[in-house]
Amino acid sequence: MRSAGLTRGVPVLPVTPAPADPSTAPTPSHPPVHSSARSRRVGPPDRVSTRRLARRLVHLYVGLVLYGVSDALLVRAGLGLDPWDVLHQGVARHTGIGIGTVSIIVGALVLLLWWPMRQRPGLGTVSNVFVIGLSMTATLDLVPAPHALAVRIPLLAAAIGLNGVATGLYISARFGPGPRDGLMTGLHRRTGRSLRLVRTCIEVTVLVAGFVLGGSVGVGTLAYALAIGPLAQLFLRVFALPGAGTRHDVGHTDDHA
Fold first, then answer.
1. H helix runs in the chain, sequence order
2. What is this structure's pTM?
3. What tens digit of pLDDT does each residue of 109-129 get?
4. For an engineered disulfide with 173, which of 30, 56, 63, 256 has Cβ 3.0 to 4.6 Å away?
5. Residues 130, 242: Cα–Cα separation, whole Å
6. Distances in Å between the alpha carbon of 184 and those of 76, 134, 227, 247?
7. Residue 122 to residues 46, 50, 60, 85: CA-CA distances in angstroms?
8. pLDDT 10s digits, 187-199
9. What is d(CA 171, CA 67) in angstroms, rounded to the nearest whole number?
10. Rounded CA gap, 113 and 41, in Å?
């Protein structure tokens, strides 16, 4: 009742609402985005990812095939092989199995050594075991052994250069190291020794074992050891894919990876 008395007789003015601030006005809600629109939005990135994957696969398998070809050309040059192929050739001479098949068998056996070191193979690891050996066998069946030194020396140079190209291709694909490289990195982690020391010990061991078994060691072995590192570094830059880092992979230029 007191409140009624206070307001009695006081003129009540009409209240005019303040004009709405356009900045605070509610925005109209957007219609829901249908799944078809969302799929159209993510389509281009999907296509880019598919193209990138396709390029990586091409790099991987072209590189592995060329690696097998280069190994076969080293054999045909007859002036000395890389350390692992010295071992493969020595085993092949004692077993009667083709050197390409021996390469596959040795690669599979080395891959088994990954298990206690908890190494995880990738697509490139498994492909490496088979593709290089098969490509090497096919090339040896197609290319005859030359006898003239004037042919064998250029053949050796071409084989080492092609090996550098192949190394740059398949490492730039980044599908995992080959079995022999995985053995090197696994021992590096287990022993704490440097990668260079571990790699040197492995390659000297297989080289000596292959030489004792009758594998070919010569000027080609030395030329390969001196040239493959710089060639691999060069072609890793040439074949680097967009957005792909090669810092970790640069050291993975081991024979057959």
1. 2-7, 35-77, 83-95, 99-112, 123-142, 149-172, 179-191, 195-212, 219-238
2. 0.77
3. 999 999 888 888 999 999 999
4. 56
5. 28
6. 28, 24, 20, 17
7. 23, 19, 12, 23
8. 988 899 998 899 9
9. 12
10. 46
